[in-house]
Specification:
alpha/beta, 23% strand, globular
């Protein structure tokens, strides 16, 4: 079984930046994560990994991005028992539900047996230097949780 996969959807590049910063922290811990756009994978691939990180921006008033919809539905058919997970994403506080896509994915991962390593990490629009550093630290923490 491979170690860690990071799956993300990013419209403007913000969530991808978060994914890359988390990946850098994991790499610093000595693990080479697999980084994939959600459009280039399917949910069943998650079962091959000990650690699963999902990143998504929140669309509109709390929706998952369109590109995550099939993947999300496919998650009903997998079991992540014994696997660790974390969720992150960019959001816009001008909407009613800030970062609801992060919450939605977190709930689904727990529902299919995953064990949460850190609370959903949300940033307002584009990540600051400090927020990228926090992502780097989340990567280190996530890697340590698998050790």
């Amino acid at each position: 079984m491979s170690k860690i996969i990071i799956v993300f959807a990013s419209m403007s590049g913000n969530t991808e930046e978060l994914a890359e910063a988390i990946a850098a922290g994991i790499q610093e811990a000595g693990i080479e994560p697999v980084l994939k756009n959600v459009m280039d994978t399917n949910a069943s691939e998650l079962e091959k990994y000990e650690g699963v990180l999902l990143g998504a921006y929140t669309w509109g008033d709390g929706d998952l991005p369109d590109e995550y919809e099939d993947f999300y539905d496919e998650m009903d058919d997998i079991n992540l028992e014994g696997r660790k997970f974390g969720v992150f994403g960019s959001a816009d506080s001008s909407y009613t539900y800030f970062g609801k896509a992060v919450d939605t994915l977190e709930e689904k991962l727990a529902e299919i047996g995953g064990e949460k390593v850190f609370d959903g990490f949300k940033v307002e629009l584009n990540p600051s230097k400090d927020e990228k550093q926090l992502c780097h630290e989340l990567g280190l923490k996530f890697a340590a949780a698998l050790a």
